[in-house]
Amino acid sequence: MRCEKCQADVANEDTFQYGGQTICEDCYIEAMSRPQPCDPGAVSAARAARELQGHKGIEGLTPIQKKIYNFLKEKGKVPREELAKYMQLTPEELQGQFAVLRHCELARGFKEGNKIYFTLM
Ligand SMILES: [Zn+2]
User: Fold this and answer.
1) Rounded to the nearest whole angstrom, what is the distance from the C-alpha of residue 10 to the centroid of ligand 1?
2) 44 close to 104: Cβ distance less than 8 angstroms
3) Strand 77-79 to strand 15-18: parallel, antiparallel, or no bridges (unpaired)?
4) Exposed, middle or buried, 48 (CB in 10 Å: 0-12/13-18/19+)?
5) Contacts of 82 (CB under 8 A, 6+ apart)
6) For residue 59, how far is its CA from the centre of ligand 1 (angstroms)?
7) How far is the C-alpha of 34 from the C-alpha of 13, rounded, in Å?
8) What pLDDT was estimated at residue 40?
9) 28 alpha carbon to ligand 1 midpoint, in Å?
10) Domain ranges of the chain
11) Percent of the chain surpassing pLDDT 70
């Protein structure tokens, strides 16, 4: 299995689906923890839109996103699998929800050892 981003050879179980690409864990973390290179305005656009609507902090988030936020707030940092289990979402669904929190600069993903964690900004 070859990562479509960095072309690294990776074991099948270490690959992730992201934006229609099959990528390695490192590229996945990279994608999860910072705005997409193809979309440099995403963060400021999301923030500007929320400010326009008068949303500060977690106001304006969906109940699911608020639940993720509150869980991270309570736990500090949460392994990806645990958050998905707690939220009863598939990794793909969680990724979609989490992307909003990330774009609003409320939360981020990071890698520690060989595990992916989520935490608040
Ligand atoms: Zn890669």
Assistant:
1) 8
2) no
3) unpaired
4) exposed
5) none
6) 35
7) 23
8) 47
9) 7
10) 58-120
11) 79
Q: Determine the 3-state secondary structure of 118 from DSSP.
A: strand
Domain 58-120 has CATH 1.10.10.10: yes
Instruction: Tell me how many degrees the CA angle 87-85-34 measures, rounded to the nearest 5.
Output: 70
Q: What is the pLDDT of residues 72-87, one digit of tens each?
A: 999 999 999 999 999 9
Residue 23 CA to ligand 1 center (angstroms) comes to: 5
Spacing, Cα 15 to ligand 1 middle (Å)? 9
Indicate the residue type of 14: D
- What's the CA-to-centroid distance between 16 and ligand 1, angstroms? 10
Q: How far is the CA of 82 from the centre of ligand 1 (A)?
A: 24
Report the C-alpha gap between 21 and 25 in whole angstroms.
Answer: 12
